[in-house]
Every structure is written in C-alpha cells, then in structure tokens.
TrEMBL record:
Compartments where located: Cytoplasm
Biased composition annotated in UniProt, kind: Basic and acidic residues: 10-21
Gene: infC
Keywords on record: Cytoplasm, Initiation factor, Protein biosynthesis
Pfam families: IF3_C, IF3_N
One of the record's GO molecular function terms: translation initiation factor activity
Lineage: superkingdom: Bacteria
HAMAP family: IF_3
Protein name: Translation initiation factor IF-3
Main subcellular location: cytoplasm
Amino acid sequence: MINRGSATPESRRTGTETRVNKEIRAREVRLVGPEGEQVGVVPVEQALTLATDVGLDLVEVAPNAKPPVCKLMDFGKYKYETALKARESRRNQQKTVLKQVNFRLKIDPNDYGTKRGHILRFLQAGFKVRVAVWLRGREQGRPEFGHRLLNTLAEEIAELGFVESAARQEGRNLIMIVAPHRTVREAADARRTRPEDGEPGL
C-alpha cells in the first residue's frame, strides 16, 4: 500500500497516470469493493477511510465517469499485473510482424539466393513475410512468370514455412504471404522468452 499523503513518482512525471488515494480530485466517487461489489456513490474522504480500514488503496479506474469510479485494491499488485499484460501484448504484436522481401522478375541467381536466405531467417525468427515480385513494362502482360518464381520459392522454403496467402496481383506487383510452420514459430517464441538463460532474444 502506498503513502496516502504524497503523489506517486509516475503521477508527478506525466499527470496521465492512474490517480490513487489523495491524488483523486473528485469530491465524491462511485465506489467498488475489492471483490467487485458495488458500494455506491460516497464522498471521497469516506472512500479513503474505508481503504485505510481494509489496508488497501483507493484507485481511480474510470476517471471520465460522473462521478469517477474508484476501486479498493492493492495498487502495487495492480501495477505488476498491468505490466505483465503489457509485456504479453507486446509479445503478441511481435508474432504478427510482417517482413517484406522484394524480387525483380529478371533477378540474378546470386541475388535470388540472398533474398531467399533473408526469408528463411525471418521465418526461423517466427515472422511472416510478404514476398513481392515487381513486374515492369512488358512483364505485366506475362504474370505467369512471376507466379512461376513464387511457386519455386515456396517449394524451397517449405521446410520452415508455408504459403498463407497465395500469389495475387496488387497493381504492378505479385504478392504472396508466407508464414512459419507452427513448430518453427513456437521455437522462436521460446527463444524470445528465455534471454535470462544466456540465449539472446531475437
């Protein structure tokens, strides 16, 4: 439980953090008990007294409501759980990162091999890849050559990934989405969540 007479460092820094205890400015609040029970609208001083009596904090959970909604809770535990949810959200966002690799239709074999290597590394890291084949000039009238290149690429990366979205034309380009196999993605996720074991996260 925090000191009821002083503002938290977070609230002093930004002014947008959750208000707690005596930081709450409203004269009255709609109070929710620690188990989610509705106590009703009470003066903020009464709510603070109730918080003190049960050894909890008064936390403003809906500041824009009229009157603001406050809940009795352990604010330290609340911040910890919020931080865990934020980390999980960031981890989920990492899973949906879409990398992009571009090919020209008339690509040099060495350049093709380099770009294929990039795709394989992205897949191994657990990322999806948007593969684009640029069609220029007369090439736009022969998209089957672009489809042939993408089909060849799909076969060559099949050990790590699969075609999630088949090749389709978008403007002048052919676009194909490839994704890592589930086992590959899970292995990448495991590496990202074990940096403390000495293995650097990706």
